[in-house]
Amino acid sequence: MSSRTPLSLQVYDRNGMPEPSPIWDRAHSLDKVITAFARGGTLLDRDAVDVHLAEIADKAACSLLRDRWKDDFPVAAYDELLSTIAALRSLLGYSPTPTAVEVFDWARQQKQKAAAAIDGPVQDFAVQFINGPYSGVILQFPGQARGWDGGPGLSITVPIAWGDDTQPGRGEATYARTDKATSEGLWLYRLAGDVPEGARPHITVPDRKGGRA
Predict the structure, then answer these.
(1) What pLDDT tens digit does each residue of the chain (213 aa) get?
(2) With contact defined as beta carbons under 8 Å apart, do 125 and 141 qualify?
């Protein structure tokens, strides 16, 4: 990880004069994060904190996209965890990770993008990725509503990421549809090619211009 200049949290009085204020020490904050994880049995060095936090966000996002379909499953914990990790990464100066709202928004955008590429009537299908970076994720995905090729697409391409803030990797993973839907109505997709080591979901967040970053 690259070192970052400590951030001054300067405050001013009513006359505009600076008041004594602490200097935010990023290295000290990282040490506190490392100590907290060590209490839970996870040993990290400073260069690993970025990736580890990103992986926690990815796991929570994937679990949210899997378990939101269960009527009796409380998803509030995933919601709070995603917001907490997003806040911690912001304080440490890392790239942003999504909140639960942004995860659902991302899923809708994937659905809309796929629907725009389909000719003819469109129907939503429940699809699940059974391995790879998106293992376990369940999405409502569009497909042909009727005909011999009715159902979701034969393949689905989703964005992936790897590495940390200093050397980020971005790309796509392609999943291929298996033969038929399960008894629960899920269409299963298996990873169709190799992905880089350490590949994880790249569930993007809105940038300041309203796009996705």
Answers:
(1) 444 555 455 566 677 776 655 556 888 899 999 999 999 999 999 999 999 999 999 999 999 999 988 877 778 899 999 999 999 999 999 999 999 999 999 999 999 988 888 887 888 999 999 999 999 999 999 988 766 667 888 899 999 999 888 888 999 999 999 987 888 889 999 999 999 998 999 998 876 555 555
(2) yes
CA distance 91 to 25: 11
Token pair of 73, please? 């499953």
DSSP state at residue 212: B
Nearest in space to 157 (alpha carbons), one of 127, 120, 114: 114
Give the per-residue SS3 of 102-171. Answer: HHHHHHHHHHHHHHHCCCCCEEEEEEEECCCCCCCCEEEEEEECCCCCCEECCEEEEEEEECCCCCCEEE
Say if residues 167 and 148 touch (Cβ distance below 8 Å): no
Cα-to-chain-centroid distance, residue 64 = 10
Q: Residue 86, CB half-sphere, CA atoms under 13 Å: how many?
A: 20
In angstroms, the CA 50 to CA 36 distance is 15
Give this prediction's pTM: 0.80
Q: Cβ(53)–Cβ(30) under 8 Å?
A: no
d(CA 204, CA 103) in angstroms, rounded, equals 8
Question: Three-state DSSP class for 175?
Answer: strand
